Amino acid sequence: MEFDEEKIKDALISRALGYDASEVVEEYSYDENGEMKLNKKKVSKKHFAPDISAIKILLARYGGMDEDELERMTEEELRAERNRLLKLLEEEEEI
To answer: In the chain, N or C terminus with fewer CB closer than 10 Å?
Structure first.
């Protein structure tokens, strides 16, 4: 099985920053001819909060920090580092 490094990195960034996703729930029933028919469809948006574990993985893999250093960081320090990296990403996108 091959892994696409860029897709993995993008997925980690999404989890580290938090993201919104749509959730679709469909309900089917059978009509008088016995065929399935869409009865109800509900689309809702969900927000997934930033994930500290994803931040740690990103920092270890791409931020030049080792695991021991990351394990010693508090959640507050990790959030501050995340904000610093976000700022760098925004600056990079402006270029």
So the answer is: N
Total domain count, the chain: 1
Determine, yes or no, domain membership for 25: no
pLDDT tens digits, one per residue of 44-79: 999 999 888 888 888 777 776 666 777 788 888 888
* 77 CB-contact burial (10 Å; exposed 0-12 / middle 13-18 / buried 19+): exposed
Residues spanned by the domain of 63: 5-20+48-94
Answer yes or no: is 39 within a domain.
Answer: no
Whether the predicted model's global pTM rises above the 0.70 cut: no
The candidate with the shortest Cα–Cα distance to 59, out of 13, 90, 6, 14, is: 13
Over residues 7-32, the pLDDT tens digits come to 888 888 889 888 999 999 999 999 89
CA nearest neighbour of 58 among 9, 95, 24:
9
The count of residues in the chain is 95
